[in-house]
Here is the input.
Amino acid sequence: MTNVAKIIRVSVSEAAKLFGVSTRTVRRAVAEGHLGYVVVRGRYKINFESLVKWSQGRPTVRNKLASTGIGQYVERWKIRNKLFSPNPKLVAQKDDEGAPTDGHPEAR
Here is the structure.
């Protein structure tokens, strides 16, 4: 079995919502050949990788991503699982020499 990366595809309306632009903007990018896509049952399915590259190459789209797209929620994403979120007390700890430690005594 070959190791093939899974391709993520989204619809035009999903792409517009994720990036905070109109569906017309996404359709215009498809028509101009900026986005990779396939047609499934008469609907465009846009390659997510090409969508991200396109959005980062366009300052207007990049700004809308941050203000009206999915970027507006990033500040609110808080990791509550302590296995993946550092404890502020551990991060602020210092060892005897004054250098910051990662909170693990075994690492010294």
User: Anything to note?
Assistant: The radius of gyration is 21 Å. The chain has a mean pLDDT of 76. The chain has two domains: 8-77, 78-108.
